């Protein structure tokens, strides 16, 4: 079937990427749509395109080439398609047709106006895994004393949670109706809620967390962990399940459930590892003493709770002692969980103990900015939004409007998002060249303002955005 566009024309040369079993089949001449982005997108995108093209030309000597297809979203789309046409059908058609796309940041107004175009793209194409690696490039200035110890990948659920955007403004008819219904019908009917009431002047938002959404994200995170060497072959489920039991707590439980059902042979949970190693150290250990060692405060618990923990110890030993016991668990993927506020301090105090951080949408949004800050800031934070039939690559940061059009912003994050795209396409040689170029530029103190101001001694003057791109390319041949 011929695909038709209203205002854009695909390149006349180049081929289409297709997907099979969730993996892209990439020709040597793929057509790849790109969105320039708002704000600093005008600076970052040209720098990124130049670096990616130069790396491919150097790595493959003309055998491979990306045929870029400019598509529109955000402010630029409104200029071409008309007022309020922030995300035109042409753009969606192109991304669907060509499967892999890359974008600059897009503006979202606060407290009103359009909902996020970035979030909309993730939801429209069901890009359920937002993958944001945070690793340190030697020489990058950091507010942290040992940034090289942090090497984590945030796997953020990307389609649900409060980002579904189902909310009602305070004082509107529906918000009032909903609060009244909750206060009079639902809350009193649920004894655990006691006499709680929602304030009558509240705005209301809905936070859906589904089993399907949680488990497909955790599946991707575990599959990635399987490719990592020890001790990085581990997945931490991040949640605030102590407070939000049926959303965040359920995310944790569904994560463990998936690990134990789909990946039983290759996974061990942290709790299981404690139970197994207790028995390894003392083969005569009673079930109750084992339970006492894995559950601090065991002796103060009710008999019912003690019995439950003893039952868990028994069932773990019955189920996996043969396959995971006697030290075998040490070669498996470790799945553990941490409460969200704690993980923010853990990545600073114990950075080397973590690897893949599987999160829900909001926690992952916060955590990916925080982790990027440790390894040098938002100029060094790449990302990918991955689904089963489409992937869109974009940085962790936003439009940084105060720097727009000044040719000063760090294009590193979108360039590194391009590296992730090349790796996803299987074009590893080009990806490696760019990583080498970035590492060498930073080591030579050829950096943009954000890194320049933190370096000791500060670099003055810093490179412009476009000069940083040239510096990266100049190191391809080192
Ligand atoms: N995926 C997307 O497209 C995203 C879009 N947004 C949107 O972007 C807009 C602006 O958001 P805002 O909260 O200001 O966050 P931003 O991430 O855009 O910028 C905040 C600050 O982070 C630093 N920063 C950001 N990008 C870079 C970079 N490439 N190099 C160096 N430093 C950088 C700058 O700090 P300093 O000035 O101190 O150097 C900047 O002022 C909002 O509309 C928001 O919704 C936000 C996040 C993601
Ligand atoms: O869409 C937006 O404007 C913000 C999204 C965001 O912060 C993110 O995805 O990290
Ligand atoms: Mg964010």
Automatic annotation (TrEMBL):
Record-annotated Isopropylmalate dehydrogenase-like domain positions: 31-472
Main EC class the enzyme belongs to: oxidoreductase
UniProt cross-references to Pfam families, sorted A to Z: Iso_dh (PF00180)
EC identifiers of the protein: 1.1.1.42
Keywords: Glyoxylate bypass, Magnesium, Manganese, Metal-binding, NADP, Oxidoreductase, Tricarboxylic acid cycle
SUPFAM superfamilies documented for this protein: Isocitrate/Isopropylmalate dehydrogenase-like (SSF53659)
Position of the signal peptide: none
Catalysed reactions listed for this entry: D-threo-isocitrate + NADP(+) = 2-oxoglutarate + CO2 + NADPH
UniProt cofactor(s): Mg(2+); Mn(2+)
InterPro entries: IsoCit/isopropylmalate_DH_CS, Isocitrate_DH_NADP_dimer_prok, IsoPropMal-DH-like_dom
Similarity remark: Belongs to the isocitrate and isopropylmalate dehydrogenases family.
Subunit structure: Homodimer.
NCBIfam families: PRK07006.1 (NF005425), PRK07362.1 (NF005610), prok_nadp_idh (TIGR00183)
Protein name: Isocitrate dehydrogenase [NADP]
Annotated source species: Microcystis flos-aquae FACHB-1344
Lineage: Bacteria, Bacillati, Cyanobacteriota, Cyanophyceae, Oscillatoriophycideae
């Amino acid at each position: 079937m011929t695909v038709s566009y209203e205002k854009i024309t695909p390149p006349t040369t180049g081929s289409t990427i297709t997907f099979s079993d969730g993996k892209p089949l990439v020709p040597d001449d793929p057509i790849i749509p790109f969105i320039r982005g708002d704000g600093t997108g005008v600076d970052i995108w040209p720098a990124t395109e130049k670096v990616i093209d130069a790396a491919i030309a150097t790595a493959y000597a003309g055998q491979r080439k990306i045929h870029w297809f400019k598509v529109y979203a955000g402010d630029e789309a409104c200029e071409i398609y008309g007022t309020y046409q922030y995300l035109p059908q042409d753009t969606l058609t192109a991304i669907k047709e060509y499967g892999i796309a890359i974008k600059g940041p897009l503006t979202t107004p606060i407290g009103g106006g359009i909902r996020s175009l970035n979030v909309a793209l993730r939801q429209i194409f069901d890009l359920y895994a937002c993958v944001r690696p945070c690793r340190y490039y030697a020489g990058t200035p950091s507010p942290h004393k040992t940034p090289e110890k942090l090497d984590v990948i945030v796997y953020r659920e990307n389609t649900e949670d409060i980002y579904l955007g189902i909310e009602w403004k305070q004082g509107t008819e529906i918000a009032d109706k909903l609060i009244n219904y909750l206060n009079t019908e639902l809350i009193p009917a649920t004894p655990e809620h006691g006499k709680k009431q929602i304030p009558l002047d509240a705005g209301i938002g809905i936070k859906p967390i589904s089993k399907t959404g949680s488990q497909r994200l955790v599946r991707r995170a575990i599959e990635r962990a399987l490719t990592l060497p020890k001790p990085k072959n581990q997945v931490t489920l991040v949640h605030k399940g102590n407070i939000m039991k049926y959303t965040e707590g359920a995310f944790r439980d569904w994560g463990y459930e998936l690990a134990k059902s789909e990946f039983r042979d290759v996974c061990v949970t942290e709790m299981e590892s404690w139970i197994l190693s207790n028995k390894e150290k003392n083969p005569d250990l009673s079930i109750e003493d084992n339970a006492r060692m894995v559950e601090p405060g065991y002796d103060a618990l009710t008999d019912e709770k003690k019995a439950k923990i003893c039952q868990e110890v028994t069932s773990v030993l019955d189920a996996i002692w043969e396959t995971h016991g006697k030290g075998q668990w040490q070669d498996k993927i470790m799945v553990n969980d941490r409460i969200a506020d704690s993980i923010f301090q853990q990545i600073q105090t114990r950075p080397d103990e973590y690897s893949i951080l599987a999160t829900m949408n909001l926690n992952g949004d916060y955590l990916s900015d925080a982790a990027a800050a440790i390894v040098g800031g938002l100029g060094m934070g790449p990302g990918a939004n991955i689904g089963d039939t489409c992937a869109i690559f974009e940085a962790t940061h936003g439009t940084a409007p105060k720097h727009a059009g000044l040719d000063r912003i760090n294009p590193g994050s979108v360039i590194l998002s391009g590296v992730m795209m090349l790796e996803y396409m299987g074009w590893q040689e080009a990806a490696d060249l760019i990583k080498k170029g970035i590492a060498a530029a930073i080591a030579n103190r050829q950096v943009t303002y954000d890194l320049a101001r933190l370096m000791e001694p500060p670099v003055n003057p810093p490179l412009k955005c476009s000069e940083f791109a040239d510096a990266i390319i100049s190191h391809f041949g080192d």
